[in-house]
Amino acid sequence: MDTTTTPASNTPVAPQGEPSSPVRLTAAAVAQVKKVIQDQGFQDYFFSIRVVPAGCSGLGYDLNLVREMKAGDLTWEQDGVKIATDALSNKYLSGTEIDFVSSVTGAGFKFNNPNAKSSCGCGTSFST
Predict the structure, then answer these.
(1) What letter does residue 9 receive in the DSSP assignment?
(2) How far apart are CA 125 and CA 5, in angstroms?
(3) Low-confidence residues in the chain, pLDDT < 50
């Protein structure tokens, strides 16, 4: 999945109604995840969001649909989408909003991460 990181200049705000979740999906992101789940027949899967070493800025996002969460994963649900991340990724993701954007040049998930201090030129990796 294509991802773009936008360093945030504002203070992180806890997702409304879900104070313990590190990430909030926009309506467009929820719709896209649900569409992929439906199209692929992945009902009851988790939308796994992890921060991994990647790119020229050092960190990137790894998005997957997984049948089972890993031991120690943090999980929550938003608008019918089950979401999972690990404790280390949670530190990097806290306060992040994920949107799904589509344009003439392509489509992908866009991250508004208040913890990202900079991103690489192509926008696929970030540093804190």
Answers:
(1) -
(2) 7
(3) 6-19
